[in-house]
Amino acid sequence: VLADAVLSEDVVPPSLPNAWQSGTVRRVLLTGATGFVGAHLLAELLARTEARVVCPVRAADATRAAERVRRAMAGWGLSTAGIEDRISAVPADITQPWLGVGEKRFRELSEECEGIYHNAAVVSVLRGYGSLRAANVLATRELLRLAAAGRPAPFHYVSTLAVAPPAALSPEVPEDFLPPHPGLRDGYQQSKWASERLVEQAGERGLPVCVYRPGRVVGAPGTGIVNEQDLLWRVLLSGIPAGALPELNVAETWTPVDYAARAIAYLSLPARTSPAVFNLALAPEVRLVDLICWVRDYGYPVDTLPLPEWRARLDERSEAPDRATLTFFELQPAGAPESPGRVRSGNTARGLAGSDIGCPHIGRRLLHRYLDYCVGSGLLPPP
Ligand SMILES: NC(=O)c1ccc[n+]([C@@H]2O[C@H](COP(=O)([O-])OP(=O)(O)OC[C@H]3O[C@@H](n4cnc5c(N)ncnc54)[C@H](OP(=O)(O)O)[C@@H]3O)[C@@H](O)[C@H]2O)c1
Asked: How confident is the model at residue 333, as a pLDDT?
């Protein structure tokens, strides 16, 4: 991991003024626009700027790439009106050299794009570092190369609070780059940390860089649509019908996806000369014990069981137990997962001061909104 986290010496941004400083950004690049966060971030960039957004997307051709972006936005309840005039979907694979677009197109993109939003990643707490390295680390290196090869382009990296050290190692999570620490246990945490480290080095070499760290990204309160791929929802969607949830003493930051997108777009717009890190953690943490009470209040009679018994209950009661979720918990070391220390978020609070962007209230009502969506869409039986 440490060897991958060294930025090669040829990534040196030229000391030219960039378009961001003049406030006339015409074209930006956004990775991961077909994903949960990316679709919302795309909607926000389209709404908040006049820039054309270039979206590298895995697809056989540009038409199918554009269709994938449209479908993703529509699936999350986002407006797609007029997007064909504002986005350029490019068939690409960020794990490949030149992002899979070929050297000529790569060089054109680096000349054309005045800002890079790197949001794509493989989000999996089950996969090892080796299998995430290409998508989550080498791709960041390639995108930094793209950012530094042209004007240079400010680089906005969507990271995660999962890189934070546990409270036992550090009482606070700074809004700053983090040295390596033993709390980086799974491959996902390691790959996101290594990417941050690459971004940090590019910043030291003069590239304008920002890092945004959401907590667990949860659905937009307006639609209540949940991300079924997310571990929390996998636990709830398999545990509620089996009548049991795991007994874990954990608390975590939730960042609603529309708020995350609004905050990232807004915080990204001022020209900056020094690197900035933003922990998107303005709401109080959610404790699993409270979450379980809110589930019961909704009408689901769930027991809380120690992990081994919970896994056994799922196996026994489910017709098709979610094997991936069970495996995740089997792989956990004994004891509860460790929560991070107090997450500092002064940069985020100061950056958003004076804007109309506030983190929605996170509590029972929001959880019930998500459960309404799950019942309405057939993901859960009515209580
Ligand atoms: N979800 C969370 O709770 C959470 C929390 C904190 C931070 N984050 C960060 O937010 C970012 C987005 O996460 P998400 O939840 O939106 O994940 P997601 O829904 O799985 O979306 C991931 C996106 O990355 C793209 N991608 C992956 N591999 C690619 C490749 N080889 N070439 C091109 N595109 C590729 C995916 O494209 P395909 O559609 O082709 O697969 C998809 O658009 C990530 O950087 C993640 O670390 C997420």
From this structure: 64
Note whether 243 and 337 are within 8 A (CB): no
- Residues with CB under 6 Å of ligand 1 are 31-32, 34-38, 56, 58, 92-95, 119-123, 135, 158, 160, 192, 214, 216-217, 230
Task: Tell me which residue has its CA closest to atom 11 in ligand 1.
Answer: 119
> In the Cβ-directed half-sphere of 223, how many Cα atoms lie within 13 Å?
19
Atom of ligand 1 nearest to the CA of 122: 27
Q: Are 232 and 293 in contact (CB under 8 A)?
A: no
334-374: per-residue pLDDT in tens?
A: 655 678 889 999 999 999 999 999 999 999 999 999 999 99
Residue 30 is predicted with a pLDDT of 98
- Using an 8 Å Cβ cutoff, are 41 and 232 in contact? no
Residue 33 Cα to ligand 1 midpoint, Å, equals 8
3-state secondary structure of 11: coil
Predicted local distance difference test score (pLDDT) of residue 104? 97
pLDDT of residue 21: 67
The predicted pLDDT at position 337 comes to: 64
Q: Atom of ligand 1 at shortest distance to CA of 100?
A: 32
If one residue of 34, 138, 255 were mutated to test the ligand 1 pocket, choosing by the most ligand atoms within 8 A of its CB, it would be 34
The Å distance, Cα 50 to ligand 1 centre, comes to 24
Q: Could you tell me the two tokens for 200?
A: 């940090």
**Cα 123 to averaged position of ligand 1 atoms, centre (Å):** 6
Sign of the alpha-carbon torsion through 95, 61, 90, 104: positive
The Cα–Cα gap between 177 and 267 comes to 17
* Residues in the chain, pLDDT under 70: 16-17, 19, 21-23, 333-337
DSSP states along 159-204: --GGGSPBTTT-SEE-SS-----TT--SHHHHHHHHHHHHHHHHHH
Cα 140 to its chain centre, rounded Å, is 14
Give the span between the Cα atoms of 25 and 191, in whole angstroms.
30
Centre of ligand 1 to C-alpha 136, Å, is 9
